[in-house]
């Protein structure tokens, strides 16, 4: 697991608990805690796990060639990480990104080769609660995988089985690019609103103004996706608003967590990407542009 935060730590931890040989690439106090106390998953609504000892390092060269490299780092680190994972990539290594956004696989492919990539999308509300501990809110924890050429393959099936062994809800998509965009629509809406309003999902969806912003951010994202040839239904944003109504009131986005922690934001690859795509396609994205303008000052590293 290249990155052991809310995504890498959670899904890697579940697989390790299921008996899969997982090495976590982490850094700083989080790495030290994993090394000395193991990795804990504190899940409010599901079974907790504690992997101790846990294999962890800050140097991919220490790991050697592996079957799968799963990337779960922040989007601004993608190009650097693509080069960093090369010591773990052999002739039969498969690379999977579970990052946010819709542009990371292209960056990874430029370094490791398109043929090594499978597509994937992770659906979860989790974060580093404290060093060595991943906090998971709600019951949603799902990974969808697929070949970019369409459907499944032996390497997809092997990884699915490894995830199922750890109790992860894992499935195969016949159109993984569409699945990634389906996640992107909701993620852009959740990130934009929870971060700009400094609130969790509950207050955002209850207040008429912020609810309208949430819907319109997603509608613009759908319009851009459809213009790029992604098979999203015209009313997909409305569907995602209904979906949002069924999620925990205290659910929030990783970008909101980053703002609260004083970290850089993934804004450029979320609302910023919608604006860039829209400009290139001649589609107006005023709500995402407004979000970008409001938060841009926080996105500098």
Please tell me about this protein's structure:
The protein is α/β, with parallel strands linked by helices. It has two domains: 167 residues, NAD(P)-binding Rossmann-like Domain (Rossmann fold); 121 residues, N-(1-d-carboxylethyl)-l-norvaline Dehydrogenase, domain 2, CATH 1.10.1040. The chain is 45% helix and 18% strand. It has twelve helices and nine strands. A hairpin with a 2-residue loop joins strand 7 and strand 8. The mean pLDDT is 96.
SSE topology sketch:
Layout lengths: L7 H10 L5 E3 L2 H10 L1 E5 L5 E3 L3 E3 L10 E4 L6 H7 L9 E4 L6 H9 L4 E14 L2 E14 L7 H12 L3 E4 L3 H21 L4 H6 L1 H20 L8 H10 L8 H8 L9 H11 L4 H10 L6
Parallel strand pairs: 1-4, 2-8, 5-6, 6-7, 8-9
Antiparallel strand pairs: 2-3, 7-8
Helix pairs in contact: 1-5, 3-4, 6-8, 6-10, 6-12, 8-9, 8-11, 11-12
């Amino acid at each position: 697991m290249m990155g052991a935060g809310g995504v890498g730590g959670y899904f890697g931890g579940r697989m390790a608990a299921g008996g899969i040989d997982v090495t976590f690439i982490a850094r700083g106090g989080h790495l030290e805690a994993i090394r000395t106390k193991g990795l804990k998953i504190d899940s409010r609504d599901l079974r907790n796990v504690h992997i101790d000892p846990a294999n962890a390092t800050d140097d991919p060269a220490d790991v050697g060639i592996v079957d799968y490299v799963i990337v779960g780092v922040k989007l601004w680190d993608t190009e650097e990480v693509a080069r960093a994972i090369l010591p773990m990539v052999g002739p039969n290594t498969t690379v999977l990104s579970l990052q946010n956004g819709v542009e990371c696989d292209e960056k990874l492919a430029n370094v490791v080769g398109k043929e090594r990539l499978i597509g994937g999308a992770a659906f979860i509300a989790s974060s580093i609660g404290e060093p060595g501990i991943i906090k998971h809110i709600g019951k949603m924890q799902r990974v969808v995988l697929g070949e970019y050429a369409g459907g499944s393959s032996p390497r997809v099936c092997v990884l699915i089985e490894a995830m199922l062994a750890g109790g992860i809800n894992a499935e195969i998509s016949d159109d993984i690019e569409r699945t990634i965009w389906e996640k992107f629509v909701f993620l852009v809406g959740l990130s934009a609103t929870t971060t700009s309003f400094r609130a969790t999902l509950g207050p955002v969806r209850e207040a008429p103004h912020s609810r309208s912003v949430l819907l319109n951010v997603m509608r613009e994202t759908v319009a851009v996706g459809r213009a790029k040839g992604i098979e999203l239904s015209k009313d997909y944003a409305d569907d995602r608003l209904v979906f949002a109504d069924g999620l925990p009131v205290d659910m929030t986005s990783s970008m909101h967590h980053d703002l609260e922690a004083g970290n850089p934001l993934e804004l450029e690859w979320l609302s910023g990407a919608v604006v860039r795509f829209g400009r290139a396609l001649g589609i107006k994205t005023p709500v995402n542009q407004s979000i970008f303008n409001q938060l841009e000052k926080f996105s500098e590293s």
